[in-house]
Amino acid sequence: MTPEDIAARMTGRIEAAGPGRAEAFLASPVAHNHAAFLTWLPDGALACAWFGGTLEGRSDIFIHLATLAPGADAWSAASRVSDDPDRSEQNPVIFTDPETGAPGLFHTAQPGGRQEECVVRFRPLEIGQGAARSGKSRTLDLPKGSFVRAALTPRDDGAWMLPLFLCRTSPGARWTGSHDVAAVATSTDRGASWDLVEVPGSTGCVHMTLVPLGQGRIAAFFRRRQADFVYRSESADGGRSWSVPEATDVPNNNSSIVAVALADGRVALLCNPVNAAQSDARRESLYDELGEGDDGRADPAGGVPAIWGVPRAPLTLCLSEDGGRSFPRRRVVEDGPGTCLSNNALDGKNQELSYPAMVEAPDGALHLAFTFHRRAIKHVVLDRSWIDAI
Questions:
Q1: Other Cβ atoms within 10 Å of 302 Cβ, number
Q2: Residue 294 pLDDT > 70, yes or no?
Q3: Predicted confidence (pLDDT) per residue in 59-98, tens digit
Q4: What is the C-alpha to C-alpha distance for residues 199 and 165, in angstroms, rounded to an integer?
Q5: Is the entire prediction scored with pTM above 0.70?
């Protein structure tokens, strides 16, 4: 599909797309759309947030949000819910306060490609009647360089656990991803203040995604800057401490993943199961198109080799029956070249199928959202027959 073909389909209408499957391309007022996040709202609506503008890292990147009302056959128009004109606002995470039922938005904000200067912000949301608006933002008391992507999870004592990664550099260097480490920020006062616990031995592990397994056990799954495999860590004390991450049997291309616990006890993982050993496609960095320059070092001393440009396709649903230690059952959701050597959404060169979000519906269907060629956010519904055929 050309960028023009994709734009013509960005109506938000959900249409049948084969046995056990339906899909839609969400409407958006901007050309570059990336990093979807899905969550159910208290009224049963499905909310999807993402960031969009002209190019990732530019200051015209803002957070957008659309909703799918219960029983509706089309998504609402997108509402812009962030407003900093000087920073690139990225990676939305929507969370509903269990005490008040009020939704809120966490997101990142950075100057250009300098992720080491990123802050995490929170703003209240008002969502209703097909539109959304946000309140005044507040910067969280987290170290500069903190980055979020995955869902916030309540702890067994009611504390909020926000998985994140810390974008670090060697002295004097710009961010490249080579020193990133995983951590969990915990708040016992409903987001007013935060404590930070790093995951040991996690250099290169990012996009930490928490999956409760029951009886105080939580598994965490990671994207890897080394573009080798999806990694897994586990907590046996409700998220207060974590084991050193270890490789699963699922390849990873240094692109985002999402994992959820299904109602039947299985763990579902949505990702691009491709790694650097399977492709020689490379690009210099995530932000090499911004023209900001750097200090000339692709791999700052003491870090890991951060690999960029490995194809971001196919998009595959993987299922595990052992708590996410292995994923022997897999089925392709969407396929294509996955070319991601450019973030440009309008020249047709980017063909990635990436950055998935996933939630399970009460009827057992899975709702997915992901980046389609950087031009659109695509929504796919897979019913139980499709899933059980894996």
A1: 10
A2: no
A3: 999 999 999 999 999 999 999 999 999 999 999 999 999 9
A4: 10
A5: yes
Q: What is the pLDDT of residues 108-146, one digit of tens each?
A: 999 999 999 999 999 999 999 889 999 999 999 999 999
Q: Quickly count: other Cβ atoms within 10 Å of residue 85's Cβ.
A: 8
Phi, psi (degrees; rounded to nearest 5) at 367: -105, 125
Site of tokens 């702890």: 155
* Domain CATH number, residue 277: 2.120.10.10
Q: Cα(390)–Cα(6) distance, rounded to whole angstroms?
A: 28
**pLDDT tens across 352-376, in order?**
999 999 999 999 999 999 999 999 9
The tally of domains found in the chain comes to 1
**What's the CA gap between 94 and 41, in Å, rounded?**
9
Annotate 175-191 with b (16+ C-beta within 10 A) or e (fewer).
Answer: bbbbbbbbbbbbbeeeb
Tell me how far apart the alpha carbons of residues 303 and 218 are, in angstroms, rounded to a whole number: 28
Distances (CA, A) of 290 to 59, 120, 285: 11, 22, 10
DSSP-assigned beta bridge partners for residue 131: 128
For residue 268, which of 256, 260, 276 has the smallest C-alpha distance? 260
Q: What residues make up the domain containing 238?
A: 3-388
CA atoms of 267 and 249, how far apart (whole Å)? 14
Three-state secondary-structure class, residue 278: helix
Instruction: Name 131's Cβ contacts closer than 8 Å, sequence gap at least 6.
Output: 76, 77, 79
pLDDT in tens, 328-347: 999 999 999 999 999 999 99
Q: Position of tokens 């292995």?
A: 326
Tokens 């947030």 label which residue? 49
Q: How far apart are CA 236 and CA 232, in angstroms?
A: 13
Burial of 70 (0-12, 13-18, 19+ CB in 10 A): exposed
Contacts of 373 (CB under 8 A, 6+ apart): 1, 3, 6, 345, 348, 350, 351, 352, 353
What phi and psi values does residue 387 have, to the nearest 5 degrees?
-70, -45
3-state SS assignment for residue 218: strand
Do residues 226 and 241 touch, judged by C-beta distance below 8 A? no
The total number of residues shown for the chain amounts to 390
Q: Say if residue 304 is exposed, middle or buried (CB neighbours under 10 Å; 0-12, 13-18, 19+).
A: middle
